[in-house]
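queue> holo job accepted (alpha-L-rhamnopyranose)
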Amino acid sequence: MLFHTSKRKGVTRVLGLAAAAVTLALVATGCSTGTTSGSGDANYKITFLPKNLGNAYFDTSDKGGEKAIKEFKGTYKEVGPATATADAQVSYINTLTQQNVGAIVLSANDPTALGSALTQAKTAGVKIVTFDSDTDAKYRDIFINQATAEGIAKIQVDLITKQIGDTGDVAILSASANATNQNAWIDLMKADLTKNHPNVKLVDTVYGNDDDQTSFDKTAALLQTYPNLKGIISPTTVGIAAAARYLSTSSFKGKVALTGLGTPNQMRDYVNDGTVTAFALWNPADLGYLASYAAKALIDGKITGKKGDTFTAGTLGKFTVGEKGTVLLGDPYTFDKSNIATFNF
Ligand code: RAM
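queue> job finished
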């Protein structure tokens, strides 16, 4: 296992000193796009379709998926669009259906827009695994969720409210406007702010489309439009990295708080230079690894995605399918100055 967390006395700790080293080895041997071939009777041709290519988060998750597929001697492939839109994902799904892959492992840019392409794929016998960002449940067999939406929302609200002293204006810099995962988290963050943080006001939600430059520009615009802004939550690794880069050389550095979901490698410099205090994520490599084993279990007919189905995901161990065909990886984890040096992804 690459990354284990446990909660003891309210403190989340990393277990296993080898975590960083194992992850390092994974990064050194992995390859973000391309094919790994294997053999076997079952159709273990499994293709990852992330929201977009060129996103460090998906580079890591898909490498985790490739590692699992190598373990069971399947054929790994990764395809995906340059921009994070549903339209761009549809043509990949159609092509993969024609190519008779065994499974598509997909992070969806929209909950419904991929529906007809996915239905055709399923009808043709392709197993559909969503991971990271789900579709409506009827369009896939199983969803591999990184952590509960409630947990992901809460950790970000807890971080920002702590960082701004629980008072003042905040804004959200999200990914694309239709992203299933970000929108679920945003709804829950709004509810938490309203209920538990009456002195914190969410003044705007803007969308950087998981594009670095757009996210950078949206950050600049937020700071101009809201001169009293005290904090930004960016629930996307692309957004938070671009916002941190903007803040780090601006007069807002250290004055406007920034948190959200980021990768340690992209955020390390900004934590060390004081632009960012703390942010959260899970281990994307474990997420991809688990998704590949779920695809295998579906292909093998061991599971169908119904509640109570169980399967073993290599070194991560045994998992049980929960409500709405969802499998849960674990808890989100907080990164800050005290631990960020030990991670490499
Ligand atoms: C980006 C993507 C992804 C999300 C992470 C946190 O890389 O939007 O879907 O889970 O951020």
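queue> The CA atoms of residues 129 and 256 lie 39 Å apart.
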